[in-house]
Write a structure and sequence with these properties.
The chain is α+β, with helices and mostly antiparallel strands. It has one domain (26-216): Galactose-binding domain-like (Jelly Rolls, Sandwich), CATH 2.60.120. It has 2 helices and 12 strands. The protein has helices at 2-20, 218-239; strands at 25-30, 42-50, 53-54, 57-69, 80-83, 90-95, 100-111, 118-124, 131-138, 165-169, 182-188, 204-216. The protein is globular, with a radius of gyration of 22 Å.
C-alpha cells in the first residue's frame, strides 16, 4: 500500500510540473485544405467551413453578392478568398475556448492590387456585440517585391512567406477566455487599396492558416496541485 501511495504521488508530481509549465496549444486552425472544394459560388454570405485542426467554423459576410473562391494559400494549396469588399464586410472564425486562457491568434492575409488594405480585428463571446482589439491592420498586396511593404514572394504552395503574417496577443482579454463560443472577425475598415487607390469590386482579399492558441486554465493546475498536496499528507500520516 505504501508503494502504491508513493507511485501515485510521483505521478501527481510529474503531472503538476507539466501543468505548471504548460505552453500554448492550438485550439483550432483553418488551413482550408479539407474544405476548399466547397468554397465556391456567388452570395452575400458564406459559411460552414470546418477547422482543419480542432473544431469550429469559418464564414464570411458581405453587404453585396460576392464571388467566394479558394486560390493558392501561403505555403499551402488553398486559402479562403472573396471579392467585392465594402466597409464592415468580414471573415469570421467561431470556436470554443472552454478550458483555455491566454488566447493568441495567428494568420496570413493578402490583398490583390485593387482589394482593401485596411482591416480591424473584432471579438465577441455572444455573436451579437463585437469589440475591436487594437488599431488598423494593414494588409499588403500579393506582389513579389512590389507595392507596399518589404521585398517578398508571391503566395505559393511551395514556400511560406512570413511578410503576410499577423500575430495578435489577446492574453489580456478575459472575455475570450474559457468560453463556450468565441467569435473573431477580420473586418474591412473602409480604407484604400494597397497602392493608395480606390478599392474595386473585382479586388480580392484572402486569408490562410488562421490559428487560435491558448493555455490550459489554471483550474486544471490547481486540481492537480491539490492531488499532490493530498499525497504528501497521506505519506506523512503513514510515517507518523
Amino acid at each position: 500500500m505504501k508503494n502504491l501511495v508513493r507511485i501515485t504521488c510521483v505521478v501527481a508530481a510529474a503531472v503538476s510540473l507539466i501543468a505548471a509549465n504548460a505552453s500554448a496549444t492550438v485550439i483550432a486552425e483553418w488551413t482550408f485544405e479539407t474544405s476548399y472544394a466547397s468554397i465556391t459560388g456567388s452570395s452575400a454570405t458564406f459559411g460552414g467551413l470546418a477547422a482543419d485542426v480542432g473544431s469550429g467554423t469559418a464564414s464570411g459576410l458581405h453587404a453585396n453578392v460576392s464571388a467566394w473562391s479558394a486560390p493558392v494559400g501561403d505555403g499551402s494549396l488553398k486559402s479562403f478568398s472573396v471579392n467585392n469588399w465594402s466597409q464592415n464586410d468580414y471573415f469570421q472564425f467561431t470556436l470554443s475556448t472552454a478550458g483555455y486562457s491566454g488566447i493568441t491568434l495567428d494568420w496570413d492575409q493578402t490583398s490583390s492590387n485593387t482589394g482593401p488594405a485596411d482591416y480591424v480585428l473584432q471579438y465577441s463571446n455572444t455573436g451579437t456585440s463585437f469589440t475591436q482589439f487594437g488599431g488598423d491592420l494593414t494588409v499588403i498586396n500579393n506582389n513579389a517585391g512590389g507595392g507596399n511593404g518589404p521585398a517578398r514572394s508571391f503566395w505559393s504552395s511551395a514556400s511560406y512567406e512570413s511578410s503576410y503574417h499577423f500575430s495578435i496577443d489577446l492574453s489580456t482579454v478575459s472575455d475570450v477566455n474559457n468560453q463556450a463560443n468565441v467569435y473573431f472577425r477580420i473586418v474591412d475598415n473602409g480604407g484604400l487599396n494597397p497602392n493608395g487607390g480606390v478599392v474595386a469590386a473585382s479586388g480580392t482579399d484572402r486569408v490562410d492558416n488562421f490559428a487560435v492558441q491558448g493555455i490550459p486554465e489554471p483550474s486544471t493546475i490547481m486540481l492537480v496541485g491539490f492531488g499532490l498536496a493530498s499525497c504528501v499528507l497521506a505519506i506523512r500520516r503513514r510515517r507518523s
